[in-house]
């Protein structure tokens, strides 16, 4: 009887402490509020260029990174703000980067599409679809060669699974049995082109057997389902058994980028997915299982809200790089 | 080691390929982070037998055969370099780097900059390059200018066995990505190579024959063709100064400008397609410099034909500068006939 009741409890609530679960909820709120703060700053003219928001995909980012340490690596995508926060980045330095400031993670040289924090194992977002896939395999190769107990999580989208780099990377990870987990965030559209149209297989995880690795498709808006899939894949990687592919089915509420007019999908579809809000689901789950009460959850959200406000203020107050430094960082200082 | 043995080692001759292999062996021996990667570099010994028997000495974990996946393989090297290894990635032919441009140009070259100096990518890409082997249009190209156009990359072109070793060891010591163009026709060329570890500095050209009548700036195999031409001109009393460029990016402005100020005549010789090639940049930098006032004749360029490299041997020779071409144009320059 006890065993049955245990099994009715979602994996994440069995696996993680209340403090870890509370922190996961805080990060999910932080991602949502960060994205909203970035969007608002863009509309107010504080941020230029473009950006790719991950609102609606917060469970995928946070649950994927739950069991990673700072020594473990991730490679991220053009839609990478959530991954960055999930891996432990400070939102003040992230906003500073978006504002093009010297205090940003890339000293204002990278912006949204290149944000990284190598010290916490985030090897960076990438402006090239599929660009991070071979790099992640290289990071896993380093871990194996130098005998480090690290794994690398490679985030990519449904669009990247039709790039040659995807196929080359998965093949090499498999033949060399490298500790890498390929995490596909399938949000159904590569810009405007649907994965259903552009991809020959029904599920992207169906491509895993072609590279002799396990592949699983999960509800990417279900925090616990993602965390459980990653738990198994990370354990396999740490045990030296090689790579895995996890496909998180999710949805981006906003358009591809700031220029998107949403002509390729319906309002009904967007609203249907907004009804599957990963944050609301996780929050309700934590309350239902007594990890938090309503007031506790409100406090978590308020904490995240305060961090975003402080982050934007930090970014606004920060100095911009001097234009004379346009070629700084092209090469190592000593070798320049 | 006694003094006599040391002197013998200093005087020994190695081929260009052997010199490169020796540099890689020194690197593998002295730094556990160094790994070699590439297609058929293991038991096969590399398409041009440059890695040779290194797999027997260092094993398949450090001399790694990659699948035929240039984009993925180059990207794995970039990711490995970003996280603590020092990979030397061999392309079978530089032409195949076209498959990997994404990782070399968009990733390796820019990561340090995009990340605001918070990361480095100490990777070396080795590229067997150039024409003269009868392999036609997809196995004979000279892409130095392509890569030389990308900030964040350094591009070198050794012309002798000693340079091949010294520049490769310099590339390995460099914290940033370096692309090494090795000329296929030079692999069997023999020359004196110092023993042990030494570096030929990146960004420094060498005056390999002094003269005062005309400056010939050349790289890779064109250095030898220029020297051959210069020897013939010397018999006519024309002393050409030959500069071995060694590095395409960053260019050694000082050496080139000083030579042109002395001779007042400039001929650029390069195997890559003439238009928008390395010689165009050298011409421009001289025209923009204080050496302009010293010029006694228009700058001349000899470069590759505006065509793919053809198969027919006569056509193939005609597609890139040869020694008589250099001799003819240098003579015209020296005699004020241009």
Automatic annotation (TrEMBL), chain A:
UniProt keyword annotation of Oxidoreductase present: yes
Gene3D superfamilies per the UniProt record, alphabetical: 3.40.50.970
Catalytic activity annotation: N(6)-[(R)-lipoyl]-L-lysyl-[protein] + pyruvate + H(+) = N(6)-[(R)-S(8)-acetyldihydrolipoyl]-L-lysyl-[protein] + CO2
Domain spans labelled Dehydrogenase E1 component: 26-321
Top-level taxon in the UniProt lineage: Bacteria
Keyword entries, A-Z: Oxidoreductase, Thiamine pyrophosphate
Cofactor(s) recorded in Swiss-Prot or TrEMBL: thiamine diphosphate
Function: The pyruvate dehydrogenase complex catalyzes the overall conversion of pyruvate to acetyl-CoA and CO(2). It contains multiple copies of three enzymatic components: pyruvate dehydrogenase (E1), dihydrolipoamide acetyltransferase (E2) and lipoamide dehydrogenase (E3).
Protein name (Swiss-Prot/TrEMBL): Thiamine pyrophosphate-dependent dehydrogenase E1 component subunit alpha
UniProtKB/TrEMBL annotation, chain B:
EC code: 1.2.4.-
Family matches, as Pfam families: Transket_pyr, Transketolase_C
Gene3D superfamilies, sorted: 3.40.50.920, 3.40.50.970
Cofactors (names): thiamine diphosphate
Presence of keyword Oxidoreductase: yes
Keyword Oxidoreductase on entry: yes
Domain of life of the native organism: Bacteria
SMART domains, per database record: Transket_pyr (SM00861)
Domain Transketolase-like pyrimidine-binding intervals: 14-189
CDD domains, per the entry: TPP_PYR_E1-PDHc-beta_like (cd07036)
Keywords: Oxidoreductase, Thiamine pyrophosphate
One MF annotation (Gene Ontology) recorded for this entry: oxidoreductase activity
InterPro entries recorded: THDP-binding (IPR029061), Transketo_C/PFOR_II (IPR009014), Transketolase-like_Pyr-bd (IPR005475), Transketolase_C (IPR033248)
Top enzyme category: oxidoreductase
Protein known as: Alpha-ketoacid dehydrogenase subunit beta
